[in-house]
From TrEMBL, chain A:
Signal peptide: none annotated. Gene3D superfamilies: 3.40.50.970. Residues 46-319 form the Dehydrogenase E1 component domain. The lineage of its organism: Bacteria, Bacillati, Bacillota, Bacilli, Bacillales. The keyword Oxidoreductase applies. SUPFAM superfamilies: Thiamin diphosphate-binding fold (THDP-binding) (SSF52518). One of its GO terms (biological process) is pyruvate decarboxylation to acetyl-CoA. It comes from the Bacteria. This is Pyruvate dehydrogenase E1 component alpha subunit. Keywords: Oxidoreductase, Pyruvate, Thiamine pyrophosphate. Transmembrane segments: none annotated. It comes from Melghiribacillus thermohalophilus. The keyword Nucleus does not apply.
From TrEMBL, chain B:
Its cofactor is thiamine diphosphate. This is Pyruvate dehydrogenase E1 component beta subunit. Residues 10-185 form the Transketolase-like pyrimidine-binding domain. It holds the Pfam family Transketolase_C.
Amino acid sequence: MEIPKEKLIWMYETMVKSRYFEEQMEQAYMEGKAPAFNIGAGPVPGEMHLSNGQEPAAVGICAHLTDDDTVTSPHRPHHHAIAKGVDLKKMTAEIFGKVTGLGKGKGGHMHLFDPSVKFSCGGIVGAGIPHAVGAVLTAKKRGTDDVAVAFIGEGAANSGAFHESLNLAALWNLPLIVVVEDNKYGISVTKESSTAVESNDLRAPAYGIAGEKVKDNDPMAMYEASKRAVERTRAGEGPAIIEIETYRYLGHFQGDPELYRPEGEADSLREKDPIIRLKNYMLEQNLYTEEELTEREETVKNEVDQAFEFARNSADPAPEDALQDVFAE
Amino acid sequence: METTKKERMLTGNKAMAEAIAQEMEKNPEVFVLGEDVGKYGGIFGSTEGLLGKFGPDRVMDTPISETAFIGAAIGAAAEGMRPIAELMFVDFHGVCMDQIYNHMAKIPYMSGGNVKLPMVLTTAVGGGYNDAAQHSQTLYSSFAHLPGMKVVAPTTPYDIKGMMTSAIRDDNPVVFMFHKSLQGLGWMDLIEASVGHVPEESYTVPLGKAKVMREGKDVTIVGIQMMTVYALEAANKLAKEGIDAEVIDLRSLVPLDRETIIHSVQKTHNLLVVDEDYRSYGMTAEVSAVVAEEALYDLEHPIKRLAIPDVPIPYSRPMENYVIPNADAIYKQVKAMISE
């Protein structure tokens, strides 16, 4: 499959943006948390689940989506949000708990909602899949051809919500794609010790739907598998599961001692970094020069820097704002 | 001879289904989904006749997948649809409570008001017909305790229709609890209160407003659904003995109409709160606390409560009758507190 140049560069820029965002967030998160780690201290308190290494899953499929397509995401949502085009300033401000954030500081990093691009995420494993089902049930009722993508980790494929939702989506022939990001671990528990099948795409025949596996965190293979799935489901040919073998460079959350992880695992994964691989491919194909790519990298990094500046300079919510927004007027 | 126009009488279930039908006619984005809501018309008749009128695309039978279909209703509501999802028995909330309290109730707040969820979650409550511990609960406070959902439980057919219309039009998630005994079903004890006058035209009854069902000056009895029915029965008996009870039907648990309760207690100076839910940490405690905070010195006697005595609902008839408050228990409790 020939991937259009503009799609390749979009995926590259978006992965760079997402990675740089997480690197900045990693630093911001640690402010006030040294020498002793205190989860509630610093400008970004609470749990922090970063996505460094998992970018191919997000960009490979979001390259095929429009603003009218829905994406739901779990507790590790930043790469999905960025790939779906969530407002970066408001998203960053939300993570800093500021009044200018997507949820005026009421949501935080696991609870980002941007209805303008139909993005939502949540902190309960598997729970976003039914919301994606509802979005495309709506699309079907309204006669549009919008699709929905529910991102989950491989651990969520063992939840009831996964199986109930896929049965329902298949039964009602809804345009739903579940993307399973297999980063090998559900916190500390390996996939081998939690999952009865080798790969979750193998569960697709149980619902009479399509399943596909993407190996080795390959953004281009993810793009191709996603293109097949999105085109098929948008044409009314039913739901699909895509499982992508991806890498989690960091702990489950920041501050995770990662005692369960073999020594050197993360380093060996970084040697196969998907961003570098895509960059090398584009250079080898003479699609862009090194200088052109550097310039584009600077542009998206600058966008992230501005988002962080916006977030840091934004005001905190007034304490009593906590009492607002429980109910719509 | 002059004939008077007879008022149209409906059962609770028909009042509920009529409200849904009228809103579905008006608004193509209203739809129903749940187990046995189609051909069966809802196990407790809440969707009777809707399938025939609107077809299977708008009255959707679902698999036994409460997490998926309640979650799908949330996803559809986020898109601006107005789904009505039915959780057959409230007792079944255990399999899907995550979607209800972590998502339906919290998404509007967590989004800073940017996402609205205009949906209704209907569910059947109540015991009294020996269906035992997993099908007889009246879990008002399990829902009312958690912020982010309106929780209503109307008693009369008139209120059932008017409050269902309000619930569908509300931009917030509304948990609409209907009492099995007040649906007026042919296969249960037919309770007089389950049939009442219901106008044919569409109308609304506001959510969050209690109703004074009987005015009185000696004691306030606060009830909801079947406890309101029993309180009225007890009040009639008390009246014959010169005790004039005021009966308040709460109708809504969230928002709670504190004002009507406080005004009544300031008039009667006595309060009995009756609940078909469990006693501890429940509605009776909440209403009592409201009065203790706002009208303690208006009370002549300590507040009294009647509720399920913190046991699961037993199966056998004498035991179930013993744990669910009834008119006789209310009568005796009022007599005892007045003569204290």
